[in-house]
Design brief:
The complex is a heterodimer of chains A (about 220) and B (about 800).
Chain A (H helix, E strand, L loop, with lengths): L1 H4 L1 H10 L29 H8 L4 E11 L6 E10 L3 E5 L3 E6 L2 E6 L4 E4 L8 H10 L2 H7 E8 L2 E8 L2 H7 L2 E6 L2 E10 L2 E12 L5 H7 L2
Chain B lengths: L4 H25 L2 H4 E2 L13 H13 L3 E7 L8 H17 L3 E6 L4 H12 L1 H4 L1 H13 L7 H17 L4 H4 L10 H8 L15 E8 L10 H17 L4 E6 H34 L10 H18 L3 E2 H7 L2 H13 L9 H24 L7 H25 L11 H5 L6 H21 L4 E2 L11 H13 L7 E7 L2 H18 L4 E3 L8 H13 L3 H11 L8 H12 L6 H11 L8 E4 L2 E9 L12 E3 L3 H59 L3 E2 L1 H26 L7 H17 L5 H22 L4 H13 L1
Parallel strand pairs in B: 1-6, 7-13
Antiparallel strand pairs in B: 2-4, 2-5, 3-4, 8-11, 8-12, 9-11, 10-11
The chains are: A alpha+beta (about 220), B alpha+beta (about 800).
Chain lengths: ~220, ~800
């Protein structure tokens, strides 16, 4: 039953990894790089972080694969990602929308009924990770993560490793990969026997969401 | 009356002194905090015939009212806040737990409570959840005639549902539980309590921590107020010691109750002072010497003393409103003294002679008022019975003490200023015109206003409105995820089994009548007694289920071997013979559910219930035979008050008829009807005026009218009696009494407590109108007849 309570950090990590601009079809970098330390070796990364943070509102298609221990094949979901700096993040699946914003996490079903998803008491800081990663704000992220970066030509990979050892063992690292200033793939292993991979499809940046969309997909 | 004066004085002092000493001794020993209530629900009959209201009364006073909600927060400017906030919340919770004022304190970020509940449900899922699941699936299977054998059908459905579930966001959090629960018993239970306050609480965030607590004593008692406030203050100080920036917002019924009591006391204190000033001012203007007023004080004080004593002797718990309403008694009580003291006789008139002159109207007035108020003793509403006892006892004490007091005064004679003594001349042409004008205007007011009278019975009018506290309450509850988006019902029964059956019947009824709505109840964690009893037979029928399920899981892409924990538990369940009885499950369930979830049901014998939140439109109210009632009983309480208002109307009419008969018996058919006309006319005119002013009326306007009727009948009796003796116009005592009463209750009309204002405006208007009627000399013809009769003699 403790797994029920552990549900939230897992999903939050899963969701924050969906903050993804566009995708190309390059092979992912296989291993993590050295730690990025502010003031020492972050100069090369700042243009990327600035570009990711400055994309404005984003709309993307997503394909999500979930590897459960009890299944032989991954469960595949498709959906849409909406990121609006002033409203937060919205992940829309077939009949449900997950909304993440400064007030927390909200689940909305096809009939518009909403419910608040409570953060896990054992990992109260998890929800606070979301916004710094959304913004790719390195100083803020450094509070909770060690960030490792690797590059090969236009491809890049960032590994967010929780500084807290308990958090690190509970939720593992978050791997974000991309090409140029576009996120292509996010991987997380919230538990030893659960792996989630999100592939970001067609992406439009600088979009304007209609009032109807804002009402439907955000709080 | 023929008693020797010295002996009479001695006896009067002895009787009066003994009675006063007895009353003071009783009231000095009286436990006011225990026996005087400010709880609105105490105005409801304890054995209210409507079980729904009785249930809500129990829930409101014993369960939900004891919850206290706390929000600890650190302003954004103080960052990072989470660590110091966590420390502050920990210290706050620990300090609060040490206080005996709190029975339970839970930090919502602490997963221990949820874990305990979760562990209980998960560990005992086969006892709690499997019976209902198998019964539901069997019903589905039975509705499909062409379906496969039940165990094969169930296996296929289980695997398909599991596959669907894994594609939902919630699956990520429950993944570890799935090998032991492929039937999704626990996930579906979690879903079935979503939206239920207390079961689905928010846990706070990085900038705020939420703490829930249950008071040890009722918030409507002293033990549930000041000790609670002290403990909260202490805990907040301890939290600030570890996190200086931390701020606390909190809400509890205690705060409303204490503030309500404080405001009522403050308001009544101010109003009573202003009323006293008004009375003294009027008296100073009317009496030649103000100190003459002191002769009225013993009657008023003894009346209130007697009323308090008898009421607290008769009733174990008395609502404070009884004393507010009963303060009207002071007006009547003063009248008896006024009539004796201001009787226009020679200054050296003996007590016996004076008594002979005023005996008839005095006794007639007191008996009529007592008969009228005795009708209230038949009321269902405790408040009305208490007011009835208070006033009847007070009237008895008033007339008794007035007689005893003036029996020992050497010359009981007061003097009024000439204008008040004389009044207006009934022969004046101005008065003639005024009489006609008043009759026309009064008739128009009655004709035009009575049709516009609207009744509005709202129990909230009994309380003082405290907007700031309500705003704070709404904000704090919103932090806890409590909203008014749901309709909340209570599925009830005499025993837990009956309440659970009611919950099941409600679910079935909702599926038929309102399939779009969604139900959430902690009661769904318990099986219905019938399903639990059928479980062994169901398991015996499912002999091939484990084999079929393995195959189905493989077909749907699962690794069946991963579900070994489930197949092991299933095998044990099929072998099991010692399934617990329903009562045992209920006991364990009640013991396991702590914190907010523990307030969502009650398993007391005689009054068991489960809270049910309905999300979505409620197209119609559940029929009564479902034993499901709305938890929001405001409407029902208002209906109940409307019923009691009608009851008061009936009783008032009964009292009025009884009083009228006594007047007719005492004063005969010639004089009696005129006396009755004064209070009735004043009352109708008052309601007409209120109707024209667009004022909605309630029970307390009616109650005020009933009380004022007795006062105005008093005026009519004394005026009629005077006219019968060949004198014109009302006695001066009536003028002073009416002006004093109008001044005092005119002040009460400005109260911020709606019911006090209702009483004030009604009494003041009726009394003023009654005075106008007697001043306009409605008894004129009778007066002329009396003069003629005197001339013939």
């Amino acid at each position: 039953m403790r797994a029920i309570v552990g549900f939230v950090p897992a999903r939050l990590l899963f969701m924050l990894c969906l903050l993804a601009p566009p995708l190309s079809a390059a092979e992912p970098l296989a291993t993590s790089g050295p730690e990025i330390v502010r003031g020492e070796n972050d100069a090369d990364w700042q243009p990327l972080f600035t570009a990711l943070a400055g994309q404005g509102a984003v709309f993307s298609q997503l394909t999500e694969r979930r590897w459960f221990k009890v299944r032989k094949q991954p469960v595949v979901l498709t959906g849409e990602v909406r990121l609006a700096p002033e409203h937060g993040l919205s992940l829309h699946y077939e009949d449900r929308t997950v909304i993440v914003d400064a007030q927390g996490v909200l689940l909305r079903d096809a009939r518009g009924r909403t419910r608040v998803v409570n953060p896990d008491g054992r990992n109260p800081a998890v929800i606070t990770w979301l916004l710094p990663i959304l913004r790719f704000d390195l100083p803020a992220l450094e509070t909770h993560f060690r960030v490792h970066g690797a590059r090969s030509a236009n491809d890049w990979r960032l590994d967010f490793v929780p500084r807290d050892t308990a958090d690190a063992s509970a939720v593992g690292s978050i791997v974000v990969q991309g090409t140029d200033d576009a996120i292509r793939r996010i991987e997380l292993r919230p538990k030893a026997d659960l792996r989630i991979e999100i592939v970001i499809g067609t992406t439009r940046t600088g979009v304007t969401f209609s009032a109807e969309d804002e009402q439907r997909f955000f709080r | 009356m023929g008693m020797e004066p010295r002996r009479r004085k001695l006896l009067a002092r002895l009787v009066l002194g003994t009675a006063v000493a007895g009353c003071i001794a009783w009231l000095a020993c009286f436990d006011y905090a225990k026996h005087i209530s400010t709880d609105v629900l105490d105005l409801m009959p304890v054995g209210e015939r409507d079980p729904a209201l009785a249930l809500v009364r129990q829930m409101a006073s014993q369960q939900q009212a004891r919850a206290a909600l706390f929000v600890l927060e650190i302003p954004e400017a103080i960052a990072p806040a989470d660590e110091s906030l966590a420390r502050a919340a920990e210290v706050f919770t620990a300090t609060l737990r040490q206080s005996p004022a709190f029975a339970e304190v839970v930090a919502l970020a602490d997963p221990a409570v949820q874990d305990e509940i979760g562990d209980f449900v998960f560990t005992r899922r086969f006892e709690l959840l499997l019976p209902g699941r198998l019964a539901a699936r069997q019903a589905e299977h039975a509705a499909q005639p062409a379906a496969a054998r039940f165990d094969a059908w169930l296996a296929e459905k289980t695997a398909a549902d599991l596959e669907t579930f894994l594609a939902r966001p919630e699956a990520l959090g429950l993944e570890q539980a799935l090998p032991a629960d492929p039937m999704l018993l626990v996930p579906e239970f979690v879903e079935s309590v979503r939206g239920l306050e207390g079961a689905d609480l928010a846990a706070g965030g990085t900038d705020r921590a939420l703490v829930w607590a249950r008071l040890a004593a009722s918030p409507l008692t002293e033990a549930g107020q000041q000790p609670v406030f002290a403990a909260v203050e202490n805990a907040a100080a301890a939290a600030r010691a570890v996190a200086p920036g931390v701020a606390l917002r909190w809400t509890a019924v205690s705060r409303f109750a204490a503030e309500s009591r404080r405001r009522i006391e403050a308001e009544m204190s101010v109003l009573n002072t202003l009323a006293l000033i008004a009375v003294l001012t009027v008296s100073a203007l009317c009496l030649r010497r103000l100190r003459q007023m002191l002769h009225l004080a013993p009657g008023v004080l003894c009346s209130l003393l007697g009323a308090w004593t008898v009421t607290t002797l008769v009733f174990d718990r008395v609502h404070i409103l009884v004393f507010v309403i009963g303060s009207l008694l002071a007006g009547i009580a003063a009248d008896y003294g006024l009539h004796i003291y201001l009787h226009p006789g020679p200054p050296d008139e003996e007590w016996a002679a004076r008594m002979r002159a005023v005996r008839r109207p005095l006794v007639g007035s007191a008996v009529t008022a007592m008969i009228g108020f005795s009708a209230l003793l038949l009321a269902d509403l405790p408040l009305l019975r208490q007011v009835g006892v208070f006033v009847v006892a007070g009237l008895f004490a008033a007339i008794g003490s007035a007689l005893l007091w003036f029996a020992q005064v050497r010359r009981p004679h007061g003097e009024l200023r000439p204008l008040v003594q004389r009044g207006f001349s009934s022969a004046s042409s101005h008065l003639q015109r005024a009489r006609w004008l008043a009759l026309i205007v009064g008739g128009l007011v009655v004709a035009g206003g009575l049709g516009r009278v609207h009744w509005r019975d709202d129990i909230r009018d009994l309380d003082v409105h405290v907007p700031a506290l309500w705003e704070n309450d709404r904000a704090v509850r919103a932090e806890f995820g409590q909203t008014t988006e749901h309709d909340l019902f209570l599925a009830r029964g005499d025993a837990p089994a009956a309440a659970r059956a009611a919950l099941e019947n409600f679910r079935a009824w909702m599926r038929r009548e309102n399939p779009a709505a969604r139900l959430a109840s902690i009661g769904f964690a318990l099986p219905s007694p019938a399903d639990l009893q059928a479980l062994p037979a169901q398991l015996a029928r499912l002999s091939g289920f484990d084999r079929e399920l393995r195959a189905a899981l493989e077909r749907h892409g699962f690794d069946a071997a991963e579900f070994a924990p489930f197949f092991s538990a299933w095998g044990d369940a099929r072998q099991r013979r010692d399934w617990p009885p329903f009562e045992s499950l209920v006991h364990d369930f009640g013991a396991a559910l702590r914190g907010p979830a523990g307030m969502l049901f009650a398993t007391d014998e005689g009054a068991s219930w489960f809270a049910v939140a309905v999300e979505g439109p409620m197209l119609q109210a559940p029929p009564r035979d479902l034993s499901v009632v709305s938890a929001n009983q405001l409407e029902s309480l208002n209906e109940l008050f409307a019923g009691h208002r009608r009851s008061v109307l009936r009783l008032s009419l009964v009292g009025l008829v009884a009083g009228a008969i006594s007047v007719l018996l005492i004063y005969g058919l010639r004089q009696g009807p005129r006396m009755i006309l004064v209070p009735v006319g004043a009352c109708l005119c008052t309601f007409g005026l209120l109707g024209l002013a667009g004022q909605t009326l309630n029970l307390f306007h009616l109650l005020g009218a009933f009380l004022a009727l007795c006062l105005s009948l008093d005026y009519a009796i004394f005026t009629g009696d005077r006219v019968a003796r060949g004198e014109s116009g009302p006695p001066p005592s009536v003028r002073l009494s009416a002006l004093n009463t109008a001044a005092a209750f005119g002040i009460l009309a400005f109260s911020r407590i709606p019911v006090v204002a209702a009483l004030g405006v009604t009494v003041a208007l009726i009394v003023v109108l009654a005075l106008v009627m007697v001043e306009l000399d409605l008894f004129r013809r009778h007066h002329e007849d009396a003069i003629k009769a005197a001339g013939m003699k």
